[in-house]
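Predict structure. Chain length: 391.
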Amino acid sequence: MEQGLALLLPLFLGLLQPGHAGGRLEVEPPEPEVAVAVGESRQFACRLACADGQVASVQWRGLDTSLGSVKSGTGSSVLWVHNASLSAAGTRMCVGYCGKRSFHHTVNLLVFAFPDQLTVSPESLVPGRDREVACTAHNVSPARPDVFSMSLLLGDQELEGVQTLDRDVMEEPQEDEDPLFQVTERWLLPPLGIPAPPTLHCQVTMSLPGLELSHRRTIPVLQGLTSPEPCVTTSLESPITTSPETPEQTSTHSPRSPDPEPGNSSTRPCHPEIHQVSALGTLELLCEAACGPGVAVHWTQAPGGLAAYKTREAGAQAWLTSGSTLWTECHPEGWFQCRLDPGGQMANLYLVPETCSLPASAALWTGSLVLGLLLLVFLIYRLWKRCRPTS
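Prediction complete.
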């Protein structure tokens, strides 16, 4: 069917040779290709003025796709594409007549899907341990490499020395007939240097005629770390180590690092710090930055995802709270991270739940108690049988 339409199109256009003096089609927008996002609407207007007082006839026509809504009058025709779907892509033609003279103009409508739905794996990088990183864009179309590209950035430039390992394109499960795609690209990381940069970025770009769109996802780089600490603490009351963005600014929660001297506060860089303000059985962390007005801190990472916690932000302070049931039975444990804006400085905190070492001993104690009760019942039964009077 498509091949037949492709063969008929040149013949049809040959029959509609542009007229000479006395008329010209005016189309808005004038570009031969127009890109429209899924769900958006677009209007196409076509006008023709004839010489010598002749009445112009103008009409939009669809070739290989549904046309849309059309309203035509003397010398003009307006085409509306409402709530565009991927299936609405294709060629439209405006045809005009001045007497026996004919005029035509074609528009190729490109419909694309490019939501800001990026995921990265891992969600944060530990220099020296994580050698690969993957970035996935969801529900995109088209996914051709000449239209849709992915890159790993340091700042605004592509990370020097990074190697692309592979690119995987899969069709997303959809209820309707319009196909959307999931695109994953994996990279091999080069050495990040010392000190490592605070963040990398996954950037995806959709390049269409007259339009270029981009989305980014931040990948935090945990500073001064090679691998997480083992599970050794048994209580949230134990000393907890925080790791700000640069090794020179490492600090501990207990005792708290002394504040800078007033005379030197203007020369020292500003970094956020994470403090524990919770009681036993619950978790509440405070990220704060004593940097003066105009700054804000935000939580960017937590074990199990930020959605599992309650967060509250107020300028240079941000609180993160969990229920008492979340921090039991040694789950979850891992890294908490907050960021300072503007500046992008990070603070990292590795926590282990207060009952991290208890489940094994508790299970052993429970098993011993049950065994002891069974033994006691057995002894009582034996004594009762031996000592009961005989009839």
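Summary: The longest strand covers residues 101-112.
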